[in-house]
């Protein structure tokens, strides 16, 4: 794994000092070879031991090992072997090619923190709920855009979904939940009190809770039986939401593909429903 991808994927879990080190490395990766651990510490106004601990926490033997790995990653990027390192400057290339690159990096970081076995287990839970029960889906605000879209996709596969963006109505709906049912909760930051209450109530009904949040420690995630995690960070407030949305959609697409490819009858149901919709839309 590229050290830059690893740093980016773990950033949301870091302390404030660790995030400062991570951001400096990500933004100045091509200059890192010219910095000793003491110079890096001086530039950030922190202790040298903080830099050393940071590198060791990432699994490197020490700062020289990290610096060498970053140098290798940059060399591979220059040769076209991996995506180039994100820059923070301006210009036409930054506004176009760099955005694609940052999205690709966010998707890669998100892929690394959601291993195949996790996606398989989540798809299996949804499939089982679709056979013998229901899949409840909720998201508030912008999170509902992805909740609504995912609910539609599951419906096209013939999976009974109960989607709502109203917490009071979802609370009432959850009263009909039982063992084997699944609740999928979309919440970027995972700290909405009402969603946490719904998740607790659903667990009391012996259903499984799947959360979709950022890769951070948050109240909602602690209530999850399984979790889909998104790693997407950028210091620019107009870029960070774009990275989150792109990585989240890519993650949901992977779960959907699992459901389609592992169950032939679901795939057949999808094609049949698409044909019906097309006939309905035709004049």
UniProtKB/TrEMBL annotation:
Residues 122-258 form the SIS domain. Residues 1-77 form the HTH rpiR-type domain. PROSITE patterns: HTH_RPIR (PS51071), SIS (PS51464). InterPro entries: Homeodomain-like_sf (IPR009057), HTH_RpiR (IPR000281), RpiR-like (IPR047640), RpiR-like_SIS (IPR035472), SIS_dom (IPR001347), SIS_dom_sf (IPR046348), WH-like_DNA-bd_sf (IPR036388). Keywords: DNA-binding, Transcription, Transcription regulation. Pfam families: HTH_6 (PF01418), SIS (PF01380). This is MurR/RpiR family transcriptional regulator. The lineage of its organism: Bacteria, Pseudomonadati, Pseudomonadota, Gammaproteobacteria, Lysobacterales.
């Amino acid at each position: 794994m590229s050290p830059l991808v690893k740093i980016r994927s773990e950033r949301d879990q870091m302390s404030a000092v660790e995030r400062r080190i991570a951001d400096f490395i990500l933004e100045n990766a091509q200059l890192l070879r010219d910095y000793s651990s003491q110079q890096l510490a001086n530039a950030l106004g922190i202790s040298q031991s903080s830099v050393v601990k940071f590198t060791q926490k990432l699994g490197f033997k020490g700062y020289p090992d990290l610096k060498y790995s970053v140098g290798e990653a940059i060399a591979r990027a220059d040769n076209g072997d991996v995506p180039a390192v994100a820059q923070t400057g301006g210009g036409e290339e930054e506004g176009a090619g760099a955005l694609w690159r940052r999205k690709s990096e966010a998707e890669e970081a998100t892929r690394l923190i959601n291993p195949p076995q996790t996606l398989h287990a989540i798809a299996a839970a949804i499939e089982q709920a679709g056979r013998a029960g229901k899949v409840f889906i909720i998201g508030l605000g912008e999170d509902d855009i992805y909740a609504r879209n995912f609910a539609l996709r599951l419906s096209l596969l013939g999976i009974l979904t109960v989607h709502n963006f109203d917490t009071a109505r979802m609370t009432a709906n959850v009263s009909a939940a039982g063992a084997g049912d699944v609740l999928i909760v979309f919440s970027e930051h995972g700290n909405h009190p009402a969603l946490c209450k719904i998740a607790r109530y659903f667990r009391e009904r012996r259903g499984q809770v799947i959360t979709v949040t950022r890769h951070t420690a948050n109240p909602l995630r602690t209530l999850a039986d399984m979790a889909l995690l998104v790693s997407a960070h950028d210091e620019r407030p107009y870029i960070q939401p774009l990275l989150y949305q792109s990585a989240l959609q890519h993650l949901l697409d992977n779960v959907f593909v699992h459901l389609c490819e592992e169950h032939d009858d679901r795939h057949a149901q999808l094609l049949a429903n698409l044909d019906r919709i097309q006939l309905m839309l035709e004049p």
